[in-house]
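A further point concerns the way the authors explain their paired sequence and structure data. An entry of this sort, consisting of the sequence and the corresponding backbone structure tokens, reads as follows:
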Amino acid sequence: MGKEIIIAVNEDDSQIFKDFSGEYPDKMVYVERKAFIGITEVAEFMVEITPELIAALSAYFVAKMQFSKKEIRLKKGDIEVEIKNTDVTPEIVLQMLEKLEQKTKKK
């Protein structure tokens, strides 16, 4: 990996990230140690943020969501993405990401 960052997610909701890091250890590595933000236990992952990682992780989320029939809500700053439609495909997610990228470039 090149330049890496650490991301932390709520331990209760971290399984999908752990599964992804298990299947794609070259893109995301699960840091096996206990960490807390306040009283919330978190799982930490070492990642290199690239367009390929975002596309792979998004497609993985979609596949897992279709299997588990859950919804996904992602929020970063003013941008919020909510996916409830279980018929969504990886291609639809990639189109959504492209639209978000175009919006952020216009600002």
About this structure: The longest helix spans residues 51-68. Helices lie at 15-23, 51-68, 90-106. The chain has a mean pLDDT of 76.
